[in-house]
Amino acid sequence: MITTKDLTKVYRSRGREVTALAGVDLHVREGEVYGVVGTSGAGKSTLIRCVNMLERPSSGSVTVDGLELTALSGQEHRAGRELREARRRIGMVFQHFNLLSSRTVQENVELPLEIIGLDRSQRRRKAAELLDLVGLSDKARTYPGQLSGGQKQRVGIARALAGDPKVLLSDEATSALDPETTRSILALLRDLNQQLGLTVLLITHEMDVIKSVCDSAALMRGGKVIEAGALTELLATENSELARELFPLGEFGHGHAGNTVLEITFQGDTSARPFVSQLARTYQIDINILGAAVETIAGRMVGRMRVELPGGHQDNVVPIGFLREQGLQVDVLKDTNGAVA
Ligand SMILES: Nc1ncnc2c1ncn2[C@@H]1O[C@H](COP(=O)(O)OP(=O)(O)OP(=O)(O)O)[C@@H](O)[C@H]1O
């Protein structure tokens, strides 16, 4: 649904050049919630602004719903007609809501409908539908100043849906909200994704947002995507940085020098099988469990366990193979010298 190819963006200001995007390839499938995560300055905002051409990329291409936006005419602030029409199909929500304080909630939602050219009664009807969708029907005549942060963001979302978009872009939509309100806004995005078949691309610096709402994610650093994929695939990828951040086992024990420490990740059915006792029985080894945790990620139960086996990596090649044959993801964290990988 959204594809970027070798996307670059170089900002030039006062004789200085800043490379915000250094060749980004992104592929967001239709109907998924896709999160881009990274620390401040990684290039996330630039990427999302390039997807709807609020920012014109320096090179590379952006295709949304089969239309190559980078091929359409228009400069940054003077978008051509085709580009304006394509943009209508891409809704956007912002961290600071961007509502007009002098207009009521209903009038804020009506604004894009006015621009599309709907008449007064059509606008009223559509705005009422949208406010109902986001659970704010009773606030239609209220002014933004009288709303809570979560309610303001609901108005922002209703407004973003005015053009019946297929794609919703979310620029840190929950960063200004408290944890409970964040959860309710993320649940709303998930509902809209499922009810309307909306593809959602969101950027965030919070791993919890990725964990609770996304099907897929990309990790950005220094203007590049350094890892990307479906969360369930990432969790099954050896030494995945995203998987480790999604599901950290940091406080668990690190075992003893000379032994082998494994991190075992299991998803869905595998979690029901008693693989630790099977391993102990089959190879007659003592297994020390250093820690274990279970979480729900992308709607699936995922477990992670850190175990210590006696002896070095070479002594444990066969038991490790046994675990992998059971469909378990096994990362070897420690070698015979005791160095943690
Ligand atoms: N309009 C601009 N002019 C010059 N440099 C810019 C501009 N916008 C962003 N940058 C620079 O581009 C780089 C990427 O910024 P960007 O805002 O895309 O990152 P980010 O990951 O969204 O970070 P944050 O979460 O802090 O917004 C940074 O070094 C930033 O200073």
From TrEMBL:
Which segments cross the bilayer? none
Query: PANTHER family, alphabetically?
Result: AMINO ACID IMPORT ATP-BINDING PROTEIN (PTHR43166), METHIONINE IMPORT ATP-BINDING PROTEIN METN (PTHR43166:SF30)
Explain the purpose of this protein: Part of the ABC transporter FtsEX involved in cellular division. Has ATPase activity.
Per UniProt, the keywords (alphabetical) are:
Amino-acid transport, ATP-binding, Cell membrane, Membrane, Nucleotide-binding, Translocase, Transport
GO MF annotation terms: ATP binding; ATP hydrolysis activity
Q: How does it assemble?
A: Homodimer. Forms a membrane-associated complex with FtsX.
Identify this protein by name.
D-methionine transport system ATP-binding protein
InterPro entries for the chain: AAA+_ATPase, ABC_transporter-like_ATP-bd, ABC_transporter-like_CS, ACT-like_dom_sf, MetN_ABC, MetN_ABC_transporter-like, NIL_domain, P-loop_NTPase
Read off the SUPFAM superfamilies from this record: ACT-like (SSF55021), P-loop containing nucleoside triphosphate hydrolases (SSF52540)
- Protein species of origin: Kitasatospora atroaurantiaca
